[in-house]
Amino acid sequence: MTLKVSSENPRYFEDDGKVVLLVGSHTWYNLQEWSTKPFDIDEYIKILKDAGHNYTRGWVCKSTYVPWNDPVHEVNEIYTRTGTDLAMDGKPKYNLTEFNQSYFDTMRERIIKLRDAGIYVSVMMMWDSVQFGGVRGYNNGHCYCGENNINGVSGTVSNIYNLSRMPENIKTLHSAYVKKVLETVGDLSNVFWEVGNELPRDSTGFQEFIAAEIRKYEVSPRPIGFTAQNGFAWGTKEGDLAANNILFNSSADWISPKDTVSGYHTDGYSRNPPINLGDKVIISDTDHLKDINLPRNEKPRLYQQWAWKSFCRGHNLALMDDMYSPHPDRPATANVLNGRQYIGDVSRYASRMVLAACEPSEIMTGYCIFNDEEYLIYQPNKDGNPFTLNIIPGEYDYEWFNPITSEIHSSGIKEYQGNEKIELPLDHEMVLFLKLHVDEPEPISEDVNIIVDKTIEPGTYKLIKV
Q1: Residue 43 half-sphere exposure, CB side, CA atoms within 13 Å?
Q2: How far apart are the C-alpha atoms of 209 and 178, rounded to whole Å?
Q3: N or C of the chain: less Cβ packing under 10 Å?
Q4: Which residues pair with 363 in a beta bridge?
Q5: Higher model confidence: residue 309 or residue 289?
Q6: Residue 376 and residue 350: Cα distance in Å, rounded?
Q7: pLDDT over 80 (residue 95)
Q8: How many whole angstroms separate alpha carbon 461 and alpha carbon 171?
Q9: Which position has the higher pLDDT, 64 or 449?
Q10: Whole-angstrom distance, CA of residue 154 vs CA of residue 171
Q11: CA 209 – CA 202 distance, rounded (Å)
Q12: Handedness of CA 158, 269, 51, 19 (dihedral sign)
């Protein structure tokens, strides 16, 4: 159960030679305890498995500030807090030379449980919620703030992720943490890496440094991923493109682009995802897609449309799932619950296809993924009905799937001419799955024995009915 970028189809990972589509939900405290209530990893795994997911994004946080005002029941932090003086949050100061082993034990225990359930985990190396501001702020919440540790380390928001401005002692701390994570979970087969979540603008050099540190310490090479940086003209197409271009030009094996502009259609990963040309594995993550991520209760079909469109454009899928969210603006709405089901539906169809040979395409409805014997076509717009089917002529097993109800509408065997008008069976978006029909060989009757006839060529057989 070890991932690497597929040599046959670099839009995806492969595991032991089999191409894998990653599909999964994730939530903030699945690897580190910092919620308003204890995290139940067994319940979490059941939610993932019941929805048909094979992947989760593993979160960590280096600050005690969390993006809501409710007090957390516990923060299982990276470093011990053994100082005799108090930090700005009222607790003992951090000792940055001494790791909190409980933090790493919890990470390992949870990833092992996920592995045993068949779930891959991208382990996040860096995230500090303080970079987004908030009521507690950087000084109150961060271990690298000079007033919060006993080690003389004095980091600021502007230098802890900027390699050119980073003090050498903070660079050493980052490196030591990466090494400790690799020693803790680097041997687990379901693990791969994410450098950091939405790190600040101008963190590219730092992210490349962390990627190099991972390569230095890892024993078994795993894919390394970058997510889009913050600070690029939020809410503009130009800002999104600038952030996403950094990802495509990076050394990362996989990337998660951003989309902060509501409803634009030229390069919007929410509504009209671009075709993945195979330069990087793309994990389309709703955490970075404003049109889907905020607010939670709008556009009830947007999760469904994003999931099928993204799959047909060659992307893997990750759902920011606030299943235990105390965030006042991010309740776990029915829309998010449906999102789990929708990406699970995609996974089930992907598992029936030969992904190693699949190509995304804009033919027919604009959303199609196919190989020489299989076509999955998503029609997102009833106004596009009928559409012209453009396939290799032949006899196909067909299946119409209702993506709203997650039910098969109809199925059968049909001869297709290769270029014909197709009517949707229902008056809304639909999925059509076609697989070249192969006649099953007739079973050998129970009253047939296989015997050797010595009058014919040795090693051959003939059937004799008795």
Answers
A1: 6
A2: 11
A3: C
A4: none
A5: 309
A6: 9
A7: yes
A8: 72
A9: 64
A10: 12
A11: 13
A12: negative
Nearest Cα to Cα of residue 60 among 127, 157, 134: 127
pLDDT score recorded for residue 111: 97
Closest alpha carbon to 340 in 22, 25, 59 = 25
Alpha carbon 318 to its chain's center: 4
- Choice between 262 and 297, residue whose per-residue pLDDT is larger: 262
Strand ranges across the sheet with 316-320: 23-26, 316-320, 281-285, 254-256, 224-227, 191-196, 120-126, 55-58
What's the mean per-residue pLDDT of the chain? Answer: 86
In angstroms, the CA 33 to CA 28 distance is 9
Q: In the prediction, which pLDDT does 21 show?
A: 98
Quickly count: other Cβ atoms within 10 Å of residue 389's Cβ. 19
* Predicted pLDDT of residue 333: 60
Q: Within its chain, how far is the Cα of 291 from the centroid?
A: 17
Higher pLDDT, 330 or 399: 399
pLDDT tens digit sequence for 240-249: 888 999 999 9
Structural tokens at position 241: 């493109």
Cα separation of 310 and 283, whole Å?
9
Residues 6 or more apart whose Cβ sits within 8 Å of residue 168: none
| 123 touches 31 (CB < 8 A) | yes
Cβ atoms of 47 and 79 within 8 Å: the answer is no
pLDDT at 329 over 70: no
Q: How far apart are CA 337 and CA 455, in angstroms?
A: 68
Is the predicted pLDDT of residue 330 greater than 90, yes or no? no
Helices (H), 35-100: 41-50
Nearest to 315 by CA among 263, 259, 264, 364: 259
CA separation for the pair 68, 91 (Å, rounded):
19
Structure tokens at 93: 């100061």
CA distance 127 to 231: 15
Residue 238 parent element (H or E): helix 237-248
CA distance 242 to 224: 21
Tokens of 372: 């020489």
